[in-house]
Protein: Chemotaxis protein PomA
Amino acid sequence: MDIASLIGLILAIGLIIGSIAMGNAPFSAFIDIPSFMVVVGGAFAAALICFPMGSIMKSPLIALKVLLNKGEDRLTMIKQIVELAETARRDGLLALESKVGDIQNPLIKTGIQMAVDGSTPEVVEEVLRTEVEAIQKRHKEGKSIMDQLGRFAPAYGMIGTLMGLIMMLQDMSDPSGIGAGMAVALITTLYGAIVANVFFSPFAEKLGLNSRNEMVSHEIAIRGVMAIQSGESPRAIDQKLRTFLPPKQRDAE
Amino acid sequence: MDIASLIGLILAIGLIIGSIAMGNAPFSAFIDIPSFMVVVGGAFAAALICFPMGSIMKSPLIALKVLLNKGEDRLTMIKQIVELAETARRDGLLALESKVGDIQNPLIKTGIQMAVDGSTPEVVEEVLRTEVEAIQKRHKEGKSIMDQLGRFAPAYGMIGTLMGLIMMLQDMSDPSGIGAGMAVALITTLYGAIVANVFFSPFAEKLGLNSRNEMVSHEIAIRGVMAIQSGESPRAIDQKLRTFLPPKQRDAE
Amino acid sequence: MDIASLIGLILAIGLIIGSIAMGNAPFSAFIDIPSFMVVVGGAFAAALICFPMGSIMKSPLIALKVLLNKGEDRLTMIKQIVELAETARRDGLLALESKVGDIQNPLIKTGIQMAVDGSTPEVVEEVLRTEVEAIQKRHKEGKSIMDQLGRFAPAYGMIGTLMGLIMMLQDMSDPSGIGAGMAVALITTLYGAIVANVFFSPFAEKLGLNSRNEMVSHEIAIRGVMAIQSGESPRAIDQKLRTFLPPKQRDAE
Amino acid sequence: MDIASLIGLILAIGLIIGSIAMGNAPFSAFIDIPSFMVVVGGAFAAALICFPMGSIMKSPLIALKVLLNKGEDRLTMIKQIVELAETARRDGLLALESKVGDIQNPLIKTGIQMAVDGSTPEVVEEVLRTEVEAIQKRHKEGKSIMDQLGRFAPAYGMIGTLMGLIMMLQDMSDPSGIGAGMAVALITTLYGAIVANVFFSPFAEKLGLNSRNEMVSHEIAIRGVMAIQSGESPRAIDQKLRTFLPPKQRDAE
Amino acid sequence: MDIASLIGLILAIGLIIGSIAMGNAPFSAFIDIPSFMVVVGGAFAAALICFPMGSIMKSPLIALKVLLNKGEDRLTMIKQIVELAETARRDGLLALESKVGDIQNPLIKTGIQMAVDGSTPEVVEEVLRTEVEAIQKRHKEGKSIMDQLGRFAPAYGMIGTLMGLIMMLQDMSDPSGIGAGMAVALITTLYGAIVANVFFSPFAEKLGLNSRNEMVSHEIAIRGVMAIQSGESPRAIDQKLRTFLPPKQRDAE
Structure:
């Protein structure tokens, strides 16, 4: 589990709550439901205008994925590819049919299945690459939604603060209420800054990083399937795929 | 119908009106016709300087298109291409002449008509690609107008607020009027922030997304026409074009 | 004449003057010569540091060009090229010598003259392309000057306002003068925002658009000259060049 | 040692401390632990969400690397490569085996070891280039962490200031405390600006520059190893690699 | 001499001094040594962290170069190349040896010397291109230093103003001092805006423009040397190199 993101999130929220606790003002001074609705609701509304309904609905899932993303174990993946290559070398490509059910990586599974079914290497590669491109496009859209939320949240925070200031300025008969009115007006800007800098912007960065990492795993999978189909020796495949690992892992058993 | 954009728009406007309703200030405190004219009029004036008259006149239509855009049903398109391919295979290219009237997609229509008229594949492809490039250029201009409106609206909002502040500061003999004067000055900035973040910026994003999606449909159309003209088998065409669909749709009947 | 830019400019200025007229403050409250000099003079001074004297001197002309730019009539251009092609086909390339004087487009004129003088097609194309590149470089510099003016005007506006505030804060013995002092300080920021968003930034955008349009006309001219020199049939030239026109114009006589 | 970064850092900190010392306020007026925690803690928390734990943990080391980076002595490197080439020419590639232990540059070491072990030049080059790409990726991540810290620090500074203002506005019963309250609120923004502009942003720039410089050294190493393996004359290798040096160093012994 | 930059600089400074002179406040109100040190010292300190000591030390020289840059006279350069070509044609390449001492352009000098010494055209071109790349890299670093100074100066201006505000807010016992305190605080922001917008940013732009211009001269030099070495006719060289001149200069004697 990608514990760094979770720790970071808890730390950021903890620091903000801690600062409030250390101050003199009660917690209630920082809670204003309408302000929260303008910022978060407004950012989601703007995102709804920008993206299809289906993509927006999936965005909480995408956020969860940032916190729970485990990363593919590339070494295990390479070992499995090498094993498949050994079977294919010893008993022929068709012998892989019985093993397809055990493969977890969907790209390797699709590729091996197609190879067993007799598709030509060109067709197999094209299908796998089209698939990876589609995955990449979905990742980009996910990151893009977070980016837009992180851009619209402060904008709606400013809209809320401007509305609060206008209301406050409209009625200045009671000078003692000015401070409180202004405090409420500023809360919307605070909410916009918090949701953008604690959630949306860092999550967008993380999604970009995760996507770049996943692309490397996909490349290993495609190269592995192509090498198995072209009958390369398991040892050569092992050597070739291990260049994608960091130096320390390269010589691991 | 692309209901997400409409829902997003209603939600954003609803949140803003709702926040005002929940406050103490009357609605009238948020209405100022001259401020509205400076922001929206100013943004349109700046856009008029940037773009040809014809493109600006079409921009309300473009905005409507964001709300009502339905998206091309790519599966239906592929099925129609496969049907045309079957007819061409069975009865020859010329047999397609009677079917041209039924084709709705303008690119496929133009392409098939040209193929029937005896144009070479190279000429057909060049004409279709030139057409798609022209469509893309129009899309880019549409997005660009929205982008510029979203950039000039807050700028003219700031201009209006500065003018309001200067007027207010000019006459501070009546301290009780300062609050109201400042409120009016801030309304222009509020209007600029609202029209940019509720309308222009999200609409620009959406137009960009729609255009990228449409380009995929155009690619399917061109590839389909080229495949029909070169006499490929309907089954092969079907397989090839379905790689453009998301995985779930690929096996649909 | 490109009337949109002129209308946009008049509209933007009209809106600003109208808003002032509707307010209570006299026009004189918005006029401050030193502020104007700091903003416009400062922006031009910064541009003088950035660009050669000659380019800066031409910038008012460039601004005028935005307002009066007429656009090349591409259809007429294509017709003239086709006419030249017909003459060349009928009476030989040398027969074009007598017609060179009538050609208005300078690129076509240079190209035909060179062809008549016996330059090889490679040399003709290289000279014409070098010329177009030089035109494009001049356009880019023109746009770049407007961009920099639009960036430095608000910066000098802020400098002026800061100076005004410092002067005002220096002498607060007479509280009744604070408002007026602050109003004057803000005028510089207002001027910076107005000249950037009414003139420089939209003009820069327009110059970019005009340049991209002009490049298409230059491409038609070069392709036309090359086709004439290589002896293509007038009908083929006509067809080929018309793909550069929008669909509606393509079948025009 | 890259003394410029250290001098710059001391100078920047000295200027800030000096300015405070020259003012009337005590140093304690600029110290506020909770503000410091919100800014630095918040920026690190946001970075933790963006990047894997391991990369974040290494970031203080990376910062230290900026201060202590010595740069590779390229001339010495080239001389060593030429020496190896002379041995290889005189006594054969295998004679390099005894010298591998003396080579300090890890890329040259790996490359020569592989060459001695009989790997083909293609394999040697691929392994070295993959290694350099991995180094470059690590450098990019290091710079990216500094960039994000430099972006989030001012954002959390603003969050802290907004919280301080809201607390202060909540309780304005004692007007004499308003000034002090506002001062404390502003400290968080000050901290955000300082850590971003004294540490994170300049460090990110420096890391980018260091990485670009290191890439040149890596290129010299790879070209050198390839030239040795292909048996080029030591003199030719010397000439070729010296083109990577600045002109003044090129003729050095 | 590039008099535009000098005039621009004098004009910008004159406008600022003039505005102060026209106001009521004394000049001394705009002078604050500690503020100046925080802004300029801070920006240089940050640049010291980003760049090697040597590059920073050369930056005042680079700034002077902006003011005094004369530009290469390309027509004279072409004429000299043509002259060298005539000698080479008439008396052979070796006859150029006696003329090398008279050549001022260092690239032409190096190239001709190498050609006379018998280097192959490939080697000559590679050495000259490597040299031009190194020049370009130095130019980029120079521009980059100015860009960073123009970015850090306003940042340190803000840091100084925040420190001033915190000091002022700390001690509000004497209301009459608040105005003056705030004025001093704002001076740092003013200094940051002035040094960025009068010096660093325009100078960075100018350095970029100068570098692009110089690259064209270097291209003429390289092409000329290559043409001389390959024995092209002086007339052809003249024609070819003149396409790099603006149209008006092209037919000059």
